[in-house]
Amino acid sequence: MKDPVLVFDGDCAFCSSCVGWAERYLRQTLASGGWEAVPFQFADLAALDVRAGGSGEVTWERAEREVLWVTPAGRVYGGAQAVARLLMRSGGAWAYLGALLTLAPVRPVAGVVYRWVAKNRHRMPGGTPACALPNRGVVQSS
What we know:
By secondary structure, the chain is an alpha+beta fold.
């Protein structure tokens, strides 16, 4: 793998729309190289986890809850920090915005905003009921 991989939820229309936007607009400003976007449903998560040292950082459960950015060196970033790395990779003004998201005073706020959006993505423009995060630990009655 020579480029970072953005792993996202391909079943979520909101997530797919965001990735489509990034592919259209962020690649146009690409200053430092490419990146690949792959829905986690079709990604070789085991191979990506091996690249990351086999520590269980790249899992189905994690990819279901947050976007992942896996670098060629094996670093894994999730959620808002994955978005920050994508923006930084894109160069130009986007890189400054991405760098801002990694700063200590901003990072926790970015994480809270990301988690809120992820939790409510089925309500976002383009979102559908299929975008809702799964309820873990809830027993389904039959």
